[in-house]
Design brief:
By secondary structure, this protein is an alpha/beta fold. Helix 1 packs parallel to helix 3 and helix 5 packs antiparallel against helix 9. The protein has 9 helices and 10 strands. The longest helix has 39 residues. The protein has a 6-stranded mixed β-sheet with strand order 1-2-3-5-7-10, with helices on both faces. The protein has a 4-stranded mixed β-sheet with strand order 4-6-8-9.
Length: 240
């Protein structure tokens, strides 16, 4: 972790590796979002898979709610910044592989839904969209991602009912593709990135664009709707 960013990015032979570690709950603030966005661009430029990992026991607890306490408008900007990060992952022309090192809730869970392959660590970790449980309405872009990736029979429960899951159950719901012992997570994640690195780059990018292009468009539309909703609510509060 650098002095200015909670994201440390390195390049190996087979992958660009971004490690998120803020020394706490690994919240997504402006610096983390910028660091992860830069890592995506770095991987795309290198033509290598991107690996994103948290630290032991914690992948990400979601957006930095301290920003909300300071300034509602700033928090709305942060949420939109996070939404654009998710769209960037969906549109990335290289594989995005997550090593889910622990808890992944709210924005942390949305990162799982945007990525291409997700490997979770076994343990008593919570994975899911808990926004409704803490009094927050899911934004349109979050609903769009949930509908695109979660098991159809779990979408309603995972969103409106704020269900969270242990890693093994999260695999069946659609948050994870594989679950391994914590001590083997790094090796499994890097092995998956290495396997993906040998795929034909152009064929991967073209196929992913065809498969996820409609989702990228839907996310852009959802983000625009979320911006409009916030602006309308602010206008109403000023006139009310």
């Amino acid at each position: 972790m650098s002095d200015t960013s909670p994201v440390a990015t390195t390049t190996t032979t087979n992958a660009v590796v971004a490690r998120l570690d803020d020394g706490g709950p690994n919240v997504i603030g402006f610096a983390a979002a910028a660091g992860l966005t830069a890592a995506i661009d770095r991987a795309a430029e290198a033509g290598l898979p991107l690996v994103i990992m948290g630290r032991e026991g914690m992948f990400s607890a979601g957006f930095d709610l301290n920003v909300l306490n300071d300034d509602v408008t700033a928090f709305a900007d942060l949420v939109m910044t996070g939404a654009e990060l998710l769209r960037h992952i969906v549109e990335a022309p290289v594989p995005v592989v997550l090593g889910v090192t622990g808890h992944a809730v709210a924005m942390g869970a949305l990162l799982l839904l945007a990525a291409d392959y997700r490997i979770g660590a076994e343990g008593r970790f919570k994975i899911g969209l808990n926004e409704v449980a803490i009094g927050m309405t899911l934004p349109h872009f979050a609903v769009t991602l949930a509908e695109s990736r979660l098991s159809k029979r779990h979408v309603l429960r995972s969103t409106t009912m704020a269900e969270v899951h242990r890693p093994e159950a999260a695999r069946g719901v659609g948050y994870l593709d594989d679950v391994v012992a914590p001590e083997g997570l790094k090796a499994a994640t890097m092995a998956k990135a290495e396997a993906l690195s040998i795929l034909h780059r152009g064929a991967f990018a073209g196929t992913k664009a065809r498969l996820r292009g409609d989702l990228a468009v839907a996310l852009a539309e959802a983000i625009a709707q979320d911006r409009a909703d916030f602006e309308a609510s602010q206008a109403a509060s000023r006139t009310g």
